[in-house]
Records
---
Amino acid sequence: MTTPRLALADELAEIRAEIARLKARETALASIEYRFPTVPVFRRGWPMQRAARGQEQIAHAHA
């Protein structure tokens, strides 16, 4: 059950072509990176800090 040499060569050629495509895309994206504003990943209040269920019940009991 060996794979023919031609099939391996074809697969390697596809992989190399995909790598070249990804490198070109990386270069293109890097060249336009400065045009876009910086978007902060973490915003104040995100993610929401939720109290544990037991703490919520205690807070409501004292209110």
Note: The chain has a mean pLDDT of 78.
---
Amino acid sequence: MKKAMILAALAASAISSQANATAACTGGAGGNYAVTTTANMFVKTAFTVKCSANVVSNYSENGTALGVVAGSSKGKNYFGGGTAGGGIAAVGTCATTGCSTTEITDAASALKRDAS
């Protein structure tokens, strides 16, 4: 879970927000994910995120705000933060089977909306 929190912190500082949540890590075997830029969005410089195995992470951005959430597909809680400040914090509890893309996506969109 520490890796998920570190990923969320790093991504929050660098990722721009899009209209809808975008998957960065899918909860599978891990690997690299390229974060690209879009005109008039929060992220201004493309970069690569290293995803650990079992990490589910999404980010959501617009032109002025970003929200990012991460959890483990085998974990109990998911964590997130946004450009509104306050740092990374527990955002919610996962299902008994672990975190899924749905709850992570919804939470990332909410954090971006709250930061706008």
Note: Residues 2-115 form one domain.
